[in-house]
Specification:
Layout: E1 3-9, E2 23-28, E3 31-37, H1 41-47, E4 55-59, H2 71-80, E5 87-91, H3 93-105, E6 114-118, E7 126-130, E8 134-140, E9 148-154, E10 160-161, H4 163-169, H5 173-180, E11 185-186, E12 192-193, H6 195-198, E13 199-200, E14 207-211, E15 229-233, H7 241-246, H8 252-262, E16 266-270, H9 280-287, E17 293-295, E18 301-303
Parallel strand pairs: 3-4, 4-5, 5-6, 14-15, 15-16, 16-17
Antiparallel strand pairs: 1-2, 1-18, 2-3, 7-8, 8-9, 9-14, 10-13, 11-12
């Protein structure tokens, strides 16, 4: 099953040096999920050849402009392009008020329904969405205003058929899903074949954790444990620690320390301050602590 994330924006509060504010596109089994929606997100989708019409779920971490100011524009464009299927939006309760006010005063009446689900940054861990492919949970981050992180976890798949066994026993297609679920198979000669002999273990469910703006308080560490890929903001280098703490942000070194303590497999760092034209020093700082670190740069796609 495809499970990958494409970076649309890696800058912090302002777009600069060809970097845009925060936005990511998560592809879960060819179903598209947008995570945060900074200014010009729809332009980035066009630039990288991603059809916005395929997005059915949008998750907004908090109400600083670099994480949501592109949302109304995106919703408007979908309306103008004739969208009729519903859109699910998950975010702070005040976000609905902002969206409603924008459309009220522009006298815009969307062709499609918006389903709004509020997030609660006070909950230690809350499941807010689930479908056949993925479970999404929120957890509180420690920022200047209420902010939530998101954990996306694949659903457990059924066991996998052994192709050679299917061909050898001429197993009918309609029997395969039953065998995957644990039902034994009886061949034409009346011999019973155990399900576990005809299948192998399903792949382990993978998880992607998104930590937008937060100070390094360690309070959210348990929610990151054993993730396959962790995205964590790294606004400053560690020589700017006092500035990071003052603005409730994290340094590249701290992001790497968090990844190490959480026992994740891969770390992506982003939300870079406008003071940095070159990002290699942030990458080197993080890799000195956690070698499996990459820069979350626009246009890059990472398999979870």
């Amino acid at each position: 099953m495809k499970f990958e994330v494409t970076i649309l924006g890696s800058s912090s509060s302002t777009p600069i040096f060809n970097r845009n504010p925060s936005a990511q596109l998560l592809n879960v089994n060819e179903k598209f999920i947008l995570i945060d929606c900074g200014e010009a997100t729809q332009n980035q989708l066009l630039h990288f050849g991603i059809k916005a019409s395929r997005i059915d779920h949008i998750f907004i971490s908090h109400l600083h402009g670099d994480h949501y100011l592109g949302l109304v524009g995106l919703l408007s464009s979908l309306h103008l392009n004739g969208r009729v299927k519903p859109m699910d939006i998950f975010g702070p309760p005040e976000l609905k008020e902002i969206i409603d006010l924008q459309f009220k005063h522009s006298q815009t009446f969307l062709r499609y329904p918006l389903h709004f689900c509020t997030t609660d940054p006070k909950n230690i861990r809350e499941k807010i969405f689930e479908n056949f492919d993925v479970v999404v949970e929120t957890f509180p981050l420690d920022h200047r205003i209420p902010c939530t992180g998101f954990r996306f976890t694949e659903k457990q798949r059924m066991r996998k058929m052994i192709k050679e066994k299917v061909e050898e026993l001429n197993i009918p297609a309609e029997q395969i899903s039953l065998i995957k679920k644990g039902q034994n198979f009886t061949d034409k000669r009346g011999r019973v074949h155990l399900s576990e002999d005809l299948t192998t273990e399903a792949d382990r469910p993978r998880s992607y954790v998104y930590c937008s703006d937060t100070i390094c308080s360690w309070s959210y560490l348990d929610n990151l444990k054993n993730a396959d890929t962790l995205y964590h903001e790294a606004t400053f280098m560690h020589d700017m620690l006092s500035r990071a703490e003052e603005t409730f942000h994290t340094t590249a070194k701290q992001a790497a320390e968090i990844a190490l303590k959480a026992n994740v497999r891969k770390l992506l760092i982003g939300h870079f301050s406008a003071r940095y034209r070159e990002l290699e020093p942030l990458l080197e700082e993080a890799r000195a602590v956690f070698p499996a670190t990459s820069l979350a740069l626009e246009g890059r796609t990472f398999e979870i």
